[in-house]
Amino acid sequence: MNRQSEDCVIEIEEGIKVIPGAGAVIAGIDKIANWGRISSMWPAVFGTACCAIEMMTAGSSHYDLDRFGIIFRASPRQADVMIISGTVTKKMAPVMRRVYDQMAEPRYVIAMGSCACTGNVYNTYSTAQGCDNFLPVDVYIPGCPPRPEAFIDGLIKLQEKIKNEHLRWSRWR
Amino acid sequence: MNSKEAAEKIREMFPEEVREIREYNSQTSVIVKRDRIKDIIRYLHSDPLLNFDLLKDLCGVDYSGKKETRFEVVYHLYSLEYRSLLRIRAEVPEDDCSIDSVVDIFAGANWPERECYDLLGVVFKGHPDLRRILLPEDWEGHPLRKDYPLQSDLGEKEWKGYLDVIELAKKNMEFETK
Amino acid sequence: MPEQKGKLRKKELTINMGPQHPATHGVLRLELDIDGETVVKCTPHVGYLHRGTEKLGENRTYLAALPLTDRLDYISSMANNVGYCLAVERLFGIEAPERAKFIRTMASEMARISSHLLWLGTHALDIGAMTVFLYAFKEREWILDLFEMLTGARLTVTYPRIGGVRNDVSEEFLSSLYKFTDEFPKNIEEYETLIDQNRIWLQRTKNIGIITAEEAVNWGLTGPMLRGSGVDYDLRKYCPYDAYDKVDFDVPLGKNGDTYDRYRCRMEEMRQSARIIRQCIEKLPEGPVMTPDAPKFTLPPKERILKDMEAMIQHFVLVIKGPVTAPDGEIYSAIEAPKGELGFYFISNGTGKPYRMRLRSPSFIHASVLPLLCEGALVADVIANIGTIDIVLGECDR
Fold first, then answer.
1. How far apart are CA C322 and CA C58, in angstroms?
2. Neighbours of C195 (CB within 10 A)
3. Domain membership flag for residue C343
4. Can you give the CATH number for the domain in which C233 is found?
5. Model pTM?
6. Whole domain around residue B97: which residue ranges?
7. Minimum distance, in Å, between the CA of residue B14 and any CA atom of chain C
8. B36: in domain
9. What's the complex ipTM?
10. How big, in percent rounded to 5, are the helix, strand and coil portions of chain A?
11. How far apart are CA A13 and CA C156, in angstroms?
12. Is residue B66 part of a domain?
C-alpha cells in the first residue's frame, strides 16, 4: 500500500511532487514560489556600456536566453531582475536607483562587468565605484566585458540563490 | 590652397591678431588672439580661395603654469575642396575666460562649445544654449582643468545628487527583505 | 498654444525618453515637446556615460592609455585602437611595417562589418523588423569568433600596438576569414531580401530625416551620415592610412540624404569591407609585424623579463615613465571609423604621458544633429532618426 502511493507521486524538482491523476502538486509554499520564480526571471535591462552588447548577444540567436525562461522586459514594473551592464556614472546613479525602486518585490540585481562591480579602470571624477554603493547586488559577474557564457553562468547562480530562499515576501508592499 | 598658404593669408588679413605660426609634423597651427576669432573663422569659411567648410573639432586646452595665457581653444578646420587641415589656436586668459561663439558660422560647433564650457569653464559669448552637457547641471568645478582631482573620491567637492542617492539607498535598505 | 474659443483646447506635452529606454541605443535621453503626433522641440541630453577618458588619458602613459580606447566605441574597438596607435605613431614619427599595416586594415574592416551589423540589427528592431536582428547577430557572432581567433578577445581587443600589431596572424585564421568573405556577401543579400522590398521598412525610412549636403557639412557630420547626403568624403581615400592606398574599393554615396540612403550606404560599405579584407589576405606581404623601433614602445615578452636583466629594466621604465622619446609637439590624426571620422588630438610636452588627449568622436557630433532631424517630424520617426545616426554613447560621452 505504502509503496503504491509512492508510485503515484512523481518528484519533478527537489521537494516538489506531482500527483498525475489528480492534477495536483504537493510542496511547501515557498518551494512552489521559488520554483516559479527561477523559471521566469524577467530582467529589466539597464545596459549602459560595453557589457550591454554582450548582454544583447546573449539574448540573440546564438546564445538564446529564452530557453531559461528569461525574456528581456523594457519596463522595470514587469521585471524581477535588474541587470546593470556597464559603467555606472554618478550622473546615472539617481536614474538607476529610481528604476530599482520602481521594481516590485521580490527583486534582484546582477552587476555585470568589472565597471558595475568595482568601477574598473575608471577611477575618475565622474564614475561611481561600483553600483553596490547604492544598490543591493545579488550576483557579481567579473570580466571586461564578461563573455555571454559567463553572463549565463551568473544568471544560473542567481537561480540557485533564489532556489534556496525561504518565504521571501515583501513586508511593506 | 594648402594650409601653409592659408596660414600666411590669415597673417596678411589679420596682422594684429596672429601671434605665431607653427609647423609640426606637416600640420600648421596658427596661434591667434581671441578678440577677433569670429572674423578669422568667418573669413576662412567664406573665402572661396580658402573654403574651410568642415569644422572637424573644437576643444579647449588648459596650459596651467606652462604658458602666460592659461587656456586655449583649438579649432581644427578642414577644406573638402583643397583637402587641407588648418589648426587655429585662440588664447584665452584666465581672468576673463570667454571667447566668441562660432555657432552661427558652423552649426556643428554647438555641442563641442558646450563641452568646452562644461569641462574647462570657457564661456562662449553668443552661444544659443550654453549649459553643461556631459556633467549634471549642478556640478561644481571644471574637471579638465589641471588643478581638478582625477579620482572618484572627490571628498567635499562631491556632487550633491550622488550623495543624495547614497543616503536614499541607506534609508530604503530597511524595506529590503533580509 | 493660445486658447481658442469654441474649439477643443490643445496643449503641448513634454515627454521624456530614456536614459533607460530600449530604443535609445544606450543611455541617450531625449526631452520631446510634442503637439499631438508632431515633435515641436527635441532636446537631447547626453553625459550619462561620461567616464572621464580624456582626463584619465592625461594621467596614463601612451602605452597604458591604449585599453581605454577599446571602451569608447565598444562595437568597433579595433578601429579605435588603430586610430590611437596611428596618432601616437605619427606623433613619435615612426611607422608600422607593411605586414602590420595590412593586418590592421583587415582588422579595421572586420570591425566595420561588426559595427554595421549591430546597427542594422538594432535599427531594424526599433523600426519593427525583429527577424533582421536575429539574422544580423548570427553573422556578427561569426565575426566575433574570428576576432577571438586573432586576438583572444571578443569585444575589447587591444590588438594593435604602437609600431605594429601584437602578434602575427595564423594561416588558420586567414583561411577562415577568407571563407567568411566568400559567404558574407550572400548574407547581405539575405538581409536585403528581408527588408528591401518591405513596405513598412520603406515607408518608415524613405524621406525620413533628410539632411542636405550643405547642412551635413555645416554640422560637421562625417562617415555614412555625410556620404548618405552625397558628399564624397572618405578618409580612406582622402588621406589613406595603413594599407588603404594599396587596395581597391568604392565609396558608396547616397542622393537624398534620408534614412533609406544611409541604410543603402552602410549595406554597400559592408560589401566593400568584405572586398577589402579579401584583397588584404591575397596581398598580405611577408615580414615582421613590429617596427625595429619597437623596443622603445612595447613591453618585452614575459619570458625575457624573467630571465634578462635588461629586458626587466626596459619593462620597468616603460611602465613607470612611458616611452621617453616623446617629442614636444602636437598632432591631429584621424581615421575613418565605422561611425565617421574618429580623430585624436595629442599635445605632448616631452614626457611619457600626453599633456592633452582629445578625442574627436563622431557619435558626439552626430547626436547633436538630432534636433534638426526630429523637430517637425512625427514621434514615431524619432526612433528611426536615432537609429539612422548610429551613435554609441560610450564614444559620445567619453
1. 12
2. 20
3. yes
4. 1.10.645.10
5. 0.88
6. 3-138
7. 24
8. yes
9. 0.88
10. 40, 20, 40
11. 40
12. yes
